[in-house]
Amino acid sequence: MTKIPNVSYTQLVQSKLPAGGVTIFSVMSRLAEDVGAINLGQGFPDFNCSPQLIDAVERHMREGHNQYAPMLGVYALREALARKIELLYGRHYDPATEMCVTSGATEGLFSTLTALVRPGDEVVLFQPAYDSYAPAIQLSGGTPVYVTLRRPDYCIDWDEVRRAITPRTRVILVNTPHNPTGMVLDQNDIRELERVLEHTDAFVVSDEVYEHIVFDGGRHESMARHPTIAERAVVISSFGKTYHTTGWKIGYCVAPRPLAAEVARVHQWVTYAVNTPIQSAYAEMVARDPMCTEVTSFYQAKRDLFLRLLQGSRFRPIACRGTFFQVVDYSDITDEHDAEFAIRLTKEHGVAAIPISPFLSGVEPGPVLRFCFAKRDETLERAAERLRKV
Fold first, then answer.
1. pLDDT value at residue 3
2. Backbone angle region of 369, left / alpha / beta, with phi > 0 → left and psi within -120 to 50 → alpha
3. Which domains occur in the chain, in start order?
């Protein structure tokens, strides 16, 4: 590159993500910290993980498991995951060739989309959409094609999905249970997706990090459960939500061998390997309790408590069928835009929430905010006391 006289190099930078900025999670968490608000915004627990898990990590460190893990992940963890997935969803993935441990689900998504999406490709995704999806698509030269989930139940209009499919559709990206809305795909959605896939060669990328947090007796419809989808799907999950360890950032991808190989080819140049002693500790936890049933009941109790605590407020909860997020309608309070109201709620009432607008492209969010109820009971009680006064 020839230097242009009197022009700084910072002026020559052409951003690959010109619309990107600091994530809304960082913005709201920083604001909550600055004003001393209760943070029900960013999705992380304010309680600790299992002492047994911490002890297991320490033990593996002391036993010398502190060097690079295999690129695909600690084999004991991949074996445990293969048994778990087969037990829960009835599909066997070869731990040697059909699985890759990643630096969180976010890296798993990035590596998968980088592996599959080519310049000019289109990726159908459902909005509100988690904010890491579109940048990963765009960095590979792809185009996000949005199908909007409609309030109040945030269900999928499958006729709209069919209209969104073109010869350039490379990937259909699904997220169930869905962040930020708490929507969960059901068997009818699966049948509709199977019908859509009959008429396209598209792959499916499925973000299932909340797989164990499904409420009211519902069943998680993993793409691994359904053979005609699974044969062209990369299923991505993680341990952070299940084990209350979001800061450890370890996830995994499973897929048929040809797809898994492509994901691994990208993964090796992104992070190569993931924290060894933590992988080994997770392997023990997964092998001990693959069903993770206590997590489901634990978070359902949190959701139910938060809903009870909101009674008497002017916030109207929208049905939450999964995840640890509760979306509320605030139209009885104000007609402010969601981002403006979220900031005012944090500053004036001392409770931070996440607006829905950063999860959307080209459509208005409506009067809704997202609260995280993965908090100690006393945190939820203090926050709800403030919310009831709004």
1. 57
2. beta
3. 21-43+293-387 (3.90.1150.10), 51-288 (3.40.640.10)
